[in-house]
Amino acid sequence: MELTVPLEQPITYCLYARKSSESDERQVMRIDSQQKEMQALAIKENLKVTEILQESHSAKDSGQRPMFMKLLSDI
């Protein structure tokens, strides 16, 4: 009887960038800057990025970040 060992799935990553639409001066980094930083780190660390999500609006109330909710659902 031959035993089969399940193949491990490689870990994949999703980048998530968010910027509130409230006030630009209060933001640390714009979305495009966030993405560039994350992509550079992914390359440096040899991470397999399969998706990049972004959103740009205020989320004062709970559940107001649809792309973040998608990310959690996908996990």
From TrEMBL:
Entry keyword set: ATP-binding, Helicase, Hydrolase, Nucleotide-binding
InterPro entries according to UniProt: Resolv_N, Resolvase-like_N_sf
Record bears the keyword Disulfide bond: no
Pfam families membership: Resolvase
Domain Resolvase/invertase-type recombinase catalytic: 15-74
Gene Ontology molecular function, alphabetical: DNA binding; DNA strand exchange activity; helicase activity
Protein name: Helicase
Lineage: Bacteria, Candidatus Woeseibacteriota
